[in-house]
Amino acid sequence: MRVAQIWSYPVKSMVGATIDRGHLDELGLRGDRCWAVRDLDRGGIRGAKKIGALMRLEARTDDERVEIMWPDGRRVSSDDPAIDAHLSEFLGHNVRLERLPSADDLDHFRRGASDSDDIMAELRAVFGREEDEPLPDLSQFPPVVMEFESPPGTHHDCWPLMIMSTSALRALADALPDSAIDVKRFRPSFVIDTGEDPGHPEFDWTGRRFAVGEAEIEIVGPCPRCVMVTRAVGRDLPEDRTILRHIVRDLDQNVGMYATVVRAGSFEAGDDFVEI
User: Fold this and answer.
1) Strand, helix or coil at 162?
2) What is the C-alpha radius of gyration for the chain, rounded to an integer number of angstroms?
3) Which parts of 32-99 fold into alpha helices (H)?
4) CA distances from residue 111 to 16, 32, 98, 100, 268 in whole angstroms, order as listed
5) In what order do the strands lie in the sheet with 66-69?
6) Residues with Cβ < 8 Å from 59, sequence gap 6 or more?
7) Domain range for residue 227?
């Protein structure tokens, strides 16, 4: 197996880009999700679980600033004084673009108010579940995310990495021939080339460790999918709820695997992905 693609997402929930090489540390891929938007009315950092239109925007960064691209081709930089007004108008929410602070700025990471007083309605909206579909087992998520939107020091939902295989993308396309299956819907940290292996081979990797370049990662467990995989993405991927119906019904709610970093180090696209 080898690393087929490395993905970096400068702004939480916006479309990112592939990179040729990266560096992993305990917080994940360096430079990933260094920006996010805050809901100024309800409080809290928000992603596309709550503000779906974030996934129609694309982001590129030069480390000092981030440039955001609208579906119509317009580009606005984070150092533009009107950036928050532009984002608020497009997203239909009063938001502010914020840079990732240090982990000790706990107020930045605390959860904002819920969108509903009905906790089950809130969870079904976040996970995109219909009334007769099960919710994921919430006990699999780290306890820290009960209090915080993301583990302090990161803008990740829970774990620093999400791994997918080329086999999984192919299996999804085969199962859903009428859907536009694109890697951008699923937001992996990297995609592993698993050759002709059928199905979703990564589901068997829980608890296993892999070397990738100078780094080492450990697979935590499968990634339960939420409403984000149904969203319209960028300029050309339409909204599609049938994808999530297949994932919930046929894949035990999961696509891809969460992982943590065991040993920091650099790696490149094309590097071997070798079990230790």
Assistant:
1) strand
2) 18
3) 83-91
4) 24, 21, 15, 15, 35
5) 58-61, 66-69, 75-77
6) 9, 10, 11, 14, 15, 16, 35, 66, 67, 68, 69
7) 2-275
DSSP state at residue 30: T
Closest CA to 94 of 154, 46, 35: 46
Q: Which helix (H) or strand (E) holds 119?
A: helix 119-127
d(CA 157, CA 16): 16
* Residue showing tokens 């698993």: 194
* CATH number of residue 56's parent domain: 2.40.33.20
Do 33 and 10 contact (CB within 8 A), yes or no? yes
Q: How many domains does the chain have?
A: 1
Q: From CA 123, how far away is CA 36, in angstroms rounded?
A: 22
Give the integer Cα–Cα distance in Å for 23 and 215.
8
Query: Which amino acid belongs to residue 197?
Result: D
Residue 235: count other Cβ atoms within 10 Å of its Cβ: 13
Mind listing the pLDDT tens digit of every residue in the chain (276 residues)?
999 999 999 999 999 999 999 999 999 999 999 999 999 999 999 999 999 999 999 999 987 899 999 999 999 999 999 999 999 999 999 999 999 999 999 999 999 998 888 999 999 999 999 999 999 998 889 899 889 999 999 999 999 999 999 999 999 999 999 999 999 999 999 999 999 999 999 999 999 999 999 999 999 999 999 999 999 999 999 999 999 999 999 999 999 999 999 999 999 999 999 999
Q: What are phi and psi of 59, to 5 degrees?
A: -130, 140
